[in-house]
Amino acid sequence: MKQRNFKGTLLALTLVLVLVLAACGNKEKNNASSSAPASDTPSASASASSDGSSSVESLKGKKIALVMRFNTGTFSAQYVDGVKKQVAKYGGEVTVLASDNDLSKMAANLDSAVNQKFDGILVDHGDLAALTNGLNNAKAAGIPIVAFDSGLNSIEGITNLAQNDQQLAEFTLEKLAEEAGGKGNIVKVWVAGFPPMESRQISYKAFIEKYPEIKEIAAFGDASNPQLDTQNKLEAVLKQHPKKGDITAVWAAWDEFAKGAANAIKQAGRDEIKVYGIDLSDEDLKMIQDPTSPWVASAAVDPTSIGTVQVRFLYQKFNGDATPPEVQLEPVFVHRDALPKDKVITTADLSQYVPGWGSSDLGNTEYLKELETSVGAK
């Protein structure tokens, strides 16, 4: 009887010891898991799910490089503002690397962005030949890229935003022809070497063929100091054609050209000459509204919206979404006749008078909206 009780007691003690040792082992295992360094591999909640959603936390804190060929004028300023504000809404930071219209410097800025290991790169008005090597290095480093008006479509994996540049030109040129009665002498301000300019030139050539009684009497353009250069060169052209009726209109393929042309014409007192431009900023809109200004119309995409949409597609890439190789932004036409005469408005008000202008939902997703809400709540 005593021997049986002793055996029972020994068995009970053995079971207790096994349970204690097992509990200690589990505790040590749990402690080891919590103290181990975080893995670089995203968790299931941070990676894209089957419905395309993702943890918004994994998209915060991104460092973005905006590599620009030039940063000239108010259009560029509003575009940069759109980029910065959208990245800030996502909890990230932007570093602008402007290149002063120097492709060698732009290539060096791109290399710098890769070497500094930015999370993503935005390219503005790039050049395929100058940037191919750097873009391939960025791709090899796993850095996603979204470009605007850069003609990089032949490089796989890059999403390219572009305005419908031929339509931009067509809008303004057709209005010029209508208001000139299909005839007259015009001055073209345009510069080669930029993908959007080359596209606009296609429409211009078709326009000249379509209207044989519209003659080009002068053509020039320089992107280095566009507004002042245009003003100076057009002043010389006006002196060569001093009589009213010698020049019907100026077609400017960039708003910086249009501003310079408008200044030259106004100072010369040649109020019979009209200016038709491309692109639109707050400064441009104020000039078009001015009844004493020769600049009467422009075609454009909202520059702030361009920056916003470009950032959205970059963040889609961060999320692992399949983004299209090309995204086309449709322009609108803005004429002085459509604008109020009793007050000066900005591009923020323009949608009240010009259908199709303003904020775009292009590139937006439910998880990006959730990200904005999450960041905005802090």
From TrEMBL:
Q: Name one GO cellular component term.
A: outer membrane-bounded periplasmic space
Stretches with biased composition (Low complexity): 32-55
Protein name stated in the entry:
LacI family transcriptional regulator
Residue span, Periplasmic binding protein domain: 64-320
Where does this polypeptide localize? Cell envelope
Q: Gene3D superfamilies per the record? A: 3.40.50.2300
* Membership in a protein family: Belongs to the bacterial solute-binding protein 2 family.
- InterPro entries in UniProt: Bact_Solute-Bind_Prot2, Peripla_BP_I, SBP_2_dom
Any Pfam family hit: Peripla_BP_4
Which keywords annotate this record?
A: Signal
Q: Where is this region: Disordered?
A: 28-56
The protein's organism comes out as Cohnella endophytica
